[in-house]
Write a structure and sequence with these properties.
By secondary structure, the chain is α/β, with parallel strands linked by helices. The protein contains 14 helices and nine strands. The protein folds into two domains: about 170 residues, Rossmann fold (3-Layer(aba) Sandwich); about 200 residues, Dehydroquinate synthase-like, alpha domain (Up-down Bundle).
Length: about 400
Amino acid sequence: MTDGIKPFSFDTPGAMLVEWGGAQRLGELLQGWFTERNLLIVTDKFLHENGLLDPAKASLAAHGFSVTVFDDVVADPPEAIVTACVDQARAAGADIVLGLGGGSSMDIAKLVAVMLVSEQPLAELYGIGNVQGGRTPLVQVPTTAGTGSEVTNITILTTGETTKMGIVSHQLYADRVLLDAELTTGLPAVQTAATGIDAMVHAIEAFTGQHKKNLLSDVFAREALRLMSANLITACQDGGNRAAREAMLLGATLAGQAFSNSPVGAVHALAYPLGGHYHLPHGLTNALMLGPVLRYNMTAAADLYAQLADVVIGPSDEGTQARSASFVNFMQDLMDRSGAPLRLRDVDVPEADLPMLARDAMLQTRLLINNPVEVTEADALALYREAF
């Protein structure tokens, strides 16, 4: 007799629509989903000024929505961006929030939707489960296949010159998510590679997590990795390939659902200081640290990596250790072929800074506890040196 299924919970947004070109009829969709009509779009200037929002705005206006656009979102957004966005939303009387863009835009949208109806100061929201009350209706529309922010309950803000803090709460899950892969076709190859690798890291770390890994997160992680590993190179080399773009976007979303329920580990913990100190894109920092951490984790995660090898390579008669090594080699080769930078020195990280990065990585206790192998400061320094 077995012990049965270990109890677990699995949370996710209210509903999702996957539709190529769906943003062109966004007004029709939202009109059927919500009664609110004063809509705030949270995005960045590049998307706004290059016309990517125009079809969605036209559809919204045609269906009776009053639209306000906040386009000051930047990568690694500081707290001031949240404050400015909330002020603009309140002045416009916004009663529904739409995040349209990359992870930073969607992160800000989550928090603004909460703060429009909350009297809690931002400083009280940091941590896990500290958001009280509700929020305004929230819709997320990603334009990159990477962060999975559209389906997570996490917002990350830059709180100092080099430090970041997270807010984790069920109120940050969206009511509706629209996956329109047509919006991702203009993403350059380097960004496609970095965001795609970021999403694959989400899937891998969710599948190997120490504490909240479960049957459903495993299903989502495996399918995410299958979709993205088979389509990353095509998406990088042929950005207009519809099938590849749709697979990458759906894969990134599934990975987001996986790691929202089975949190990430040491790759992310070591990536965050790189982003904080050198303002490198989050996906790129994950790519730089993935190989070293995968090899480090093999002592404990060999069986799990062997299972993932079956997903990305196919079945084999290899033993567990050899199969695990095959998976790590496959991922390293995939990153090499994607065109993403390979070494810390390639992105101008000074070798003299590595001890400082190792110290900062130790602050990411929320992530490090999920890693299948303990990471000390000395271990972190060795991993940075391997990546250098």
